[in-house]
Amino acid sequence: MTFTTSARSAPLAVLLWAALCAAAAQAEIRIAHVYGKTGPLEAYAAQSHTGLMMGLEYATGGTMTVNGETLVVIEKDTQLDPARGRALLEEAYGDDGAALAVGPVSSGVALAMLPVAEEYERLLIVEPAVADSITGTNWNRYVFRTGRNSSQDAIANAVALGAPGVKIATLAQDYAFGRDGVAAFREALVGTGAELVHEEYVPSDTTDFTAAAERIFTTMKDMEGDKKLFLIWAGAGNPMSKINAMEPDRFGVEIATGGNILAALAAYKELPGMEGATYYYHDIPDNPVNDWLVAEHQARFGTPPDFFTAGGMAAGIAVVEALRKAGSTDTEALIAAMEGMEWQTPKGTMRFRPEDHQALQSMYHFRIRVDPAVDWAIPELVRELGIDDLPIPLRN
């Protein structure tokens, strides 16, 4: 049997073909990853993207499809510039047709991006920017965060470090991440018996910490009891080694800090026995998702997964679970699906708090152990601090 197309039927055939092409083009879900691929936090960014892609892969069983539609990830580099981050998110929603976005790395960039999500009425899943104000005073209902916030860091470290009679000073970067972190830490120390006696803030590009450290030592040198200097720092230029070289133990001051990426943990080898709290270390969580991540990352890259790889994976899994639960990319359906949603991650169960969309999650109290055969210091688990152990305040 032979089929022919008449001149009159040709336009109909063209229209049908166009409709089929449009349907095929629509059979995808675009996800924008808007993050700082270049700049001082590029190591964090690379881990976050690897984790996001592995999370999407894991949650879809390798198909990269949800509800019959293909997941397409569009990468956009903020270069850690808040104005650029805002413009790129507008581009992702407005020009690229992204159903939702993930990112960024920097808290300052995240704060600039939040109003864009509200303006376009599209979801922004914040990972891994930390400042409390992201799901606090600057929050809107289109923002969810899979990453931990400053309060989770602070409360976990306060539990690890705080005790009656302990005197603590802080040194932090002078922007949202550092100031929110210290504010939350100060609040979290209340009730532990510890006292915050001094705060120092320095620019993120500081390389000489002498003046700040001397002010701390002058304040603390004549105090009685245990004395700790708690560092809150992100990215390059971590002051820990430089301050340790100034021999703070002359004044009875011990350095303390939270967890970090493997490259930064190399410097922790100078401080065996140091305690703090961390978001993730690959050997600590014991669950099937983390088992898969550790094995696959080691096989593909020759290294264990790092701090922000786990966070990126948690975001990727959350995206897939939300799309499945909502049954569509409709923003209101996604919000309804995600408020109160629990899902499994490399850290175990996470839960989006309905009131502010912050992901509640475990943290880990650690003690540093040094093994000459390992290139970095090992944060050994002292105890897991679960969701119910961390009373995270609402900030909005």
From TrEMBL:
A Pfam entry, by short name: Peripla_BP_6
Chain ranges passing through the membrane: none
UniProt-listed GO biological process terms: amino acid transport
Keywords, in A-Z order: Amino-acid transport, Signal, Transport
SUPFAM superfamilies according to UniProt: Periplasmic binding protein-like I
Database matches in InterPro entries: BCAA_transport, Leu-bd, Peripla_BP_I
Domain Leucine-binding protein stretches: 28-369
Keyword Oxidoreductase in record: no
Signal peptide: 1-27
Family membership noted in the UniProt record: Belongs to the leucine-binding protein family.
Protein name: ABC transporter permease
Gene source species: Meridianimarinicoccus roseus
